[in-house]
Amino acid sequence: MIRISGLTITLAALVAGPAMGADMPIKAPLPAVAAYSWTGFYMGGNVGGDWQRASFNSNLIGCFVLGCSTGLNHIGFDPAIVAAGTGSNTKAGFTGGGQIGYNWQINSLVLGVEADINAISGKPAIAAASAVSVNTGTFTLGNTANADWLATIRGRVGFAADRFLIYVTGGAAFTNVRFSQTFSDVCCTSSTPLTTFTNSTRKTGYAAGGGLEYAFTSNWSLRGEYLYAGGFGTVGGSYLATAINGNSDFHSGSAKLSIQEARVGLNYKFN
What we know:
The protein has 2 helices and 11 strands. The radius of gyration is 35 Å and the shape is rod-shaped. It is mainly beta. It has helices at residues 2-23, 79-84; strands at residues 40-64, 87-106, 109-120, 125-127, 132-134, 137-161, 164-187, 190-215, 220-230, 234-242, 248-269. Helix content is 10%, strand content 66%.
């Protein structure tokens, strides 16, 4: 009887086990996490550093009105004055501004267009020593060139690895370049008071660069970017520097400017 009862209990347990398991709820599989999409409009702001580099050129075409023997003796082309106004210089500054754009994502390929405008600082300059001897006289000469803002319209081509985007960019650049030259000389019985010539011109060039962007939420992304802008051409002109005895020197000066920006930006993408 004892053996029969034990066998009965064992069989009952084996039969009841599957029935109880069938009554237990089955857990549903976790939903798949959707890959991040870069497609959409975005806008944001950026800050960073900029570097403005200017290449200067200077020229002098003799003196006239009265005899050249009483001034600095500028007979024709004066190499000392030309050398003083020719050279290049780079100045660093700060930049800040905003951008707006749109991205299209096709698999891992991201195509986009972006427009931005930034305030920039830094003023490249070259200058002769305060007193440079030419024959029996001295002169001073200085050049400056700079831009206060930079705007671009660029295309973007990138590769996305989920929330990471690496891209290159290029397009048109717009700015206003300001060139200035100052000149004065002292010699013998005559001197030329400090004369300043300035020319400011809107210019169109090109911009190119690249960057890395990370989307840390479904709407917000952080980027680091480098841009180079150049091809703005020459800004300058000519002017007369007249001495107190009537002698006049006909000067010309010009500059070519390029701009670099390294900046970090924060964007908001509209879903």
